What we know:
The structure holds 2 protein chains of 2 kinds. Chain A folds into 2 domains: about 5-55 and about 130-175, 2-Layer Sandwich (Alpha-Beta Plaits); about 55-120, no CATH class. Helices cover about 45% and strands about 15% of the residues of chain A. Chain A has helices at about 15-30, 45-50, 55-85, 95-120, 155-165, and strands at about 5-15, 35-40, 145-150, 170-175. Chain B has one domain (about 10-400). Chain B is built from 15 helices and no strands. Chain B has helices at about 10-35, 40-70, 80-85, 90-110, 125-130, 140-170, 175-200, 215-240, 250-280, 285-290, 295-315, 320-325, 325-350, 365-380, 395-400. Chain B is globular. The mean pLDDT of chain B is about 95. The chains are: A alpha+beta, B mainly alpha. The interface of A and B includes residues 58, 62, 97 and 101 of A.
Amino acid sequence: MDTVNNKTFLVGLYDDEETLLHAVKRIKTAGINISDALTPFPVHGLDEAMGVPETRLHTAGFVFGMTGFLFAILSMIAITTIDWKINYGGKPNLSLPSYIPITFELTVLFASVGMVITYFIRNGLSVFNSTEVIDERITDDRFALIFDAEEYKESTLEDIDHLLQDTGAVEIKVKEMKKYKNLNK
Amino acid sequence: MNQNFKIPSRLNLICLILMAVGAVLFAIGWFTTIGEDHGASRLWAALLYNNFLFLGIALIGLFFAAVHEIGYGGWLISLKRVLEAVASYIPIGGILMLVILVLGGHDLYHHWDNDALYVVDGPEYDALVAQKRSYLNMPFFLIRAVIYVVLWVVFYLWFRRNSLKLDAAGDNRVPVYKRSKMISALFLFFFAITSSTAAWDWFMSIDPHWYSTLYGWYTFASIFVSGLCAVVIIIYMLKRMGYLEAVNEEHMHDLGKFIFGFSVFWTYLWFSQFLLIWYANISEETLYFKTRFEGGYKFVFFLAMFINFVVPFFVLLTRGAKRALGTLVFMSVLLILGHWLDFYVMTHPGVVGTGAEFSLFIEFALLIFYVGLFGFVVFRSLSKAPLYQLNHPFMKESLIHHT
C-alpha cells in the first residue's frame, strides 16, 4: 500500500455541543486553525465560531432556477408558436399566463435537484466515493474537532493537546487517514 | 436596556402636522369634487381603501403576535410591544370604518344597494344580485360590520390587558401566560373567518356580479405584507431614536423572510385568481379584469404587481439584503405604497369606473392623513408600557435569537 499519501490528524472528541462551542472559540482565539468539526447534528453558531465562509450553494440554486425558468418558458414558446400550433379555447398561440404554472414547477425542480446534486458533489458524498470514518460515535453522540498534524510543529501539537484537555475533550487520538476532504479550505 | 419610550415632541408634532395637512387637503378635495359626477363615490372609495389599509395593518399586528403566542414563537418577544402598539390602532380604525360604511355605504355599494334591482320584471331587475339579496342587504351588511369591529376591538383590549398583567405577575406568570394563549387561539379562530368575510363584504361586494373564493386570502396577504412592513418601519424609527437595541439584525432577518415569503404568497394568490378566470373565460367572471384592463387602470394594475412581486423578489432574495436595515426599510415603504396601489385597483374601478385618477387632494391627502393618525396612535401606545416584556417566559429566547 502507498503510505506516502496518508495524512495524520489529531482528533479531539467531545460529548456535548455546548462544550464543543466553547472549545472552538478558545482554540480559535489561541490562533490555531481547526481543520474541521464533525457533529451528529447541526450545531447552532458553530459555522461562525469556526470561521467557515458562507456557502455559495444558494447562488448555484439561483442559477439552476434561472436555467429551469428559461428552459421552460423558451421551450413552451417554441412548441406552441413554431413547432406545433394548437388553438385551444380560442386563445392566441402565445399565451404567457398558461405557461406560468409549468415554468414555476420547472424552476423549482431544476433549482432543488441541481442544488442536491451540487451539494453531494461538493461534499464528496457521491455514490462511488467512500470516506474513512474518524470515530464511529460521531454519528451518534460524539463531537469531533480535527487538526491537520502536518500543519503544526511538534510543540504546537502538544499545545493543542493541552487545549483539548482543558476544554473538556473526553478523548484525544491521532488518526491516519488516506482520503479526507478538508471542507474548511 | 432602555425600557421607557418617551415620544420626542418633534415626532408628535410631525404626526399632528401630517394629520392636519392631510385633513385640510382632503377637505379641499371634498368640496371641489363632491358636486361632480361620481364625485361622492370617488371620495368614499378613497376613504374606504385608505382606512382599510391601515386597519388591516393594525389587525396584522395583533394577528402576528397571536400566532407566535400560540406557536411558541419565542424570537419575536422583544418586539411584541411594537406589535401591540400597531394593534392599538384597531379601535380607531374600526370606528372610522363603521362611520365610512354607514355614511358612504350607498355611494360605495350602489351596485347592489338599490331597490329597483330587486323588482321582478322591472326595468332594472338583476337576477344575479337578487339571488344574493339575503346576504347583501344594507341592514345585515352593517350588522356584520359592527360584529367584526366589536370582535376585533374586544380581542385587542383583552390581549393587551393580559399582556400588561403578565408584566405585573412576577413569578406567578404561568397562568397569565396560558391565558394569553387562550385569547390568541380564540382571536385567530374569529379572525380567520372575519378577515375573509370582511374582505368579501367591503371589497368584493363592490362588484356584486363577480366572485372569487380566494378573495379573502388575497386581501389577507396584502395586509399581512403591509403590516410587517409597518412593523419594520416603526422598529427602524425606534432604533434611530436610540431604543429597542435588543432587536438586532437576526430579528430583522426573520421579519424580512416573512415579507419576502408573503410577497410571493400574495403573487401566488393574485395569479391563481387571474389564471382560472382567464382560462375559463366566463363573461360574468372576466368582467372584473376587463374593467381593470382599460381606462388607464391597466398601468396601475401591473405597476402594483411589479412593485409587490418583482421588486421584493429580486431585492430581498439574498441574505445580506434582509439583514441590512436600510434595504429592508426602503422595501417596506415601497411595499406599503404598492399595496396601497393594489387596494386602489380593488376599489376604484368598481365604485367609480371612470379611469385611473390620482389627486393630491383625495387619494394622497388621505394617505398623508392616515400615516399621521396611525403614527400618532402607535407611538402613544408605545410610550404607555415598557418597551420589552421582560417577564414573558420566552424573553430570553428572543434576546439570544440567532438566525
